[in-house]
Amino acid sequence: MSYMLTLNLILPNHYSFRKNCHFPPTFPWINIAALPLCPTSQSQINQSLSAMEPHILSAKPCTFYLFSCILLIFAFLASFASAAIHYHEFVIEAKPVKRLCRTHSTITVNGQYPGPTLEVRDGDTLVIKAINKARYNVTLHWHGVRQLRNPWTDGPEYVTQCPIQPGRSYTYQFTIQNQEGTLWWHAHSKWLRATVYGALIIYPKLGSPYPFPLPKREMPVILGEWWDRNPMDVLKLALFTGGAPNVSDAYTINGQPGDLYRCSSKETAMYPVEAGETILLRIINSALNQELYFGVANHKLTVVAVDASYTKPFTTNVIMIAPGQTTDVLLTADQPPARYYMAAHAYNTANAAFDNTTTTAILEYESAHYSAKGGKYLKPIFPQLPGFNDTATATAFTAQLRSPCKVKVPIEIDESLFFTVGLGLINCKNPNSPRCQGPNGTRFAASINNVSFVFPRSTSLMQAYYQGQPGVFTTDFPPVPPIQFDYTGNVSRGLWQPVKGTKLVKLKFGSKVQIVFQDTSIVTVEDHPMHIHGYDFYVVGSGFGNFDPKTDPAKFNLVDPPRRNTIGTPPGGWVAIRFVADNPGIWLLHCHLDTHLPWGLATALLVENGVGKLQTVQPPPLDLPQC
């Protein structure tokens, strides 16, 4: 349930990132060349106005001949000053969902799996009332939204809010500020995000162009994971035994597993396309625990954005996308009319079990519904995807990502942090216990700098901080590992057991921050997709082996690094990011493999208030849930 109210507001600089890159302030939704200064016929007016259609969410053509030029001028002016408030109701409840021949009582939003797609423009405000009719506590996270000065609507349970309890509600209200592209939303409570998620598409402000040719149409491609059982029960069992959770039974595209799974062919997701047209695919990895390779048979993909930040366009046969990340690609239907599989399967970097199945959807040329003989569907052509452990292809893909132009990367660093990220094992007093089913009678854990993060339960971190409540957390998170060792070599077993704690990283407002995430070989090397709430950052460098602070910074890209909100550590390697701590509040930093989050692969950034109202956390809403 949703509706929209349009307001006229004076908004800040509407070019934001695009202005820094000197994109021309043109208006792609008006064909200026086709617009005569003084129209000589009604057909000329209608022809000119029809060019507005592709890029406007809703518009009514002007039919008054004498005032057509004046109204077009007003359209130009209004495009700079209009913003909308979008009202939605998200009812979170169990509904029957059938996949893989079986029907499960699945937690959904408004009865939809995946959940509703939210479509807004930069500058718009979202007001979303979340009503919890499920039997679990729940929160919602708006992945990648900056939430400036407003951590109360960020969503991770026990970090910025207590969860919404069954039978209760909470209204998330936030404004999109200088962001555009593909983001997404999802539950941030245990494993509910296995089925509670959806796309969040942010269009440019009226009057601002895409920095690439306008596509004929746009389509979300949401990659997910499906368990043939209740995902919450899968997690519950793993947390009880201390072992690894069971892997998923299928991957999905827009909620459907596709032709290669039992009882799934009839519902395979279809993407119609006309020969010769270019479409924009907004690809989201909402899978809980798996990086994925994605490709379309016989078609090139031109990458134009990641994580709602534009990139220098480059062409590829395949993309690698980690949980939490988004990738926008242009696809031109330049092949013989036929049916072509879109497909995704695992990119696996850990020495661990994984789901080795393949999900498919079908790109169908509209002139190729049926074969010439017998009226049967044409058999789709299958793409070539890299091998499950093909790290070289993943590395080559991420190495091509660049910002469209020179960007303002922090140069003089105020806070230099070195974070080892990886797994660990907790020793058990009774290794034969049912609760110690990890390797050699241990329990799995995970940590950053040997601190395995423990979430509070009686309140949220943000509420405790705002209210000055002591004893909930400390701000002594170690900026470097407590012990230096050969992080990617043969690590002594004495270093495998982390220490539990609720330790936060304290940063001054405006400080220039560098974080190097270093993977370790403890238990196994792995690509850990690290996500920071409330922030984008520049990915300035990466490599394999141990980070060398003396030589590696000289190789950093400080000119046009890509901007992201989630970045993977190369398996057995490191990745370096930089950002300015300009958003006050408490912001979760964690691995987006949801197996690792309850094991403790997280911390939080406590960014202090700056000077004045615009650098200070706003007060909490009146309906903020209590624990």
TrEMBL record:
| A Gene Ontology cellular-component term | apoplast
Q: Supply the alphabetized keyword list.
A: Apoplast, Copper, Glycoprotein, Lignin degradation, Membrane, Metal-binding, Oxidoreductase, Repeat, Secreted, Transmembrane, Transmembrane helix
Which InterPro entries does the protein's record reference? Cu-oxidase-like_N, Cu-oxidase_2nd, Cu-oxidase_C, Cu-oxidase_fam, Cu_oxidase_CS, Cu_oxidase_Cu_BS, Cupredoxin, CuRO_1_LCC
**Domain Plastocyanin-like: residue ranges:** 93-205, 218-367, 476-609
Concerning Gene3D superfamilies, the annotation shows: Cupredoxins - blue copper proteins (2.60.40.420)
Q: Where's it found, cell-wise?
A: Secreted, Extracellular space, Apoplast
Q: How is the cofactor bound?
A: Binds 4 Cu cations per monomer.
Q: What is its EC number?
A: 1.10.3.2
Chief location of this protein within or outside the cell:
secreted
| Cofactor list | Cu cation
Q: Which reaction does it catalyse?
A: 4 hydroquinone + O2 = 4 benzosemiquinone + 2 H2O
State which residue ranges cross the membrane.
64-87
Q: Name one GO molecular function term.
A: copper ion binding
> What is one Gene Ontology biological process annotated in the Swiss-Prot or TrEMBL record?
lignin catabolic process
| Keyword Calcium assigned | no
Q: Kindly give the PANTHER family that the UniProt entry links to this protein.
A: LACCASE-13, MULTI-COPPER OXIDASE
What does the UniProt function comment say about this protein? Lignin degradation and detoxification of lignin-derived products.
**Similarity comment text for this entry:** Belongs to the multicopper oxidase family.
Protein name (record): Laccase
Q: Which organism is it from?
A: Gossypium anomalum
